């Protein structure tokens, strides 16, 4: 068995066509057929159902089993290549969610500078959900992350840096009762962070359970714009208190009939990654804030 045979096999199952698979890889159709025969010979079983009409590919039960393992093997091969390339560059691709990086990087900046790490970090800015996907795919080495839960997957190791809270906010120009129930906010316009933010899971739960935040008049990936719009009294919002540091003109609403999960700020990386001195130092700097 070799990696190329597994690549042909997974693509053949995806495209359901020997000719299309050959065209995808820029090889002849017999190359794909011989590759499949090699796999079948190695595992001593038929992997696809042979049918009389052309371009028909259906996996046997043995083929389905091999397919599950093939995806895992190809993913590990892809990660291995990326990790080795990273070790050659002697740099780190580090994920920085905007809210968290604005909060933590100023606190860590001097230590990062004096330790000579600033020019060895390639920053990638995106929402926490997107950064977690990039981390899983090996496109990032390590990331700051915000989440309402702690990862349970065996793929990741992490250290919690801070634990904060979610807040429902409004413009300080608005008058609200001292205490509120969620039903009091049903008719309010809402400004929300988009689906790449971990905040959306909390918002979606509120929509499903309490029918609040259903009137989302605007969605954005930019939390600063969100705060500006709330400040200008264009709607209420939900956001972590991390974003409210030095954010005049907005206020927390005292909603008494719901309890939000914590907002965990963590530094996270893949379990299989060889960390090395640079990554260990980066983890140390942020974990001691």
Automatic annotation (TrEMBL):
InterPro entries: HTH-type_LysR_regulators, LysR_HTH_N, LysR_subst-bd, WH-like_DNA-bd_sf, WH_DNA-bd_sf. Coiled coil: none annotated. Residues 1-60 form the HTH lysR-type domain. GO terms for cellular component: cytosol. One of its GO terms (molecular function) is DNA binding. Pfam families: HTH_1, LysR_substrate. Keywords: DNA-binding, Transcription, Transcription regulation. SUPFAM superfamilies: Periplasmic binding protein-like II, Winged helix' DNA-binding domain. Belongs to the LysR transcriptional regulatory family. This is LysR family transcriptional regulator. It comes from Companilactobacillus mishanensis.
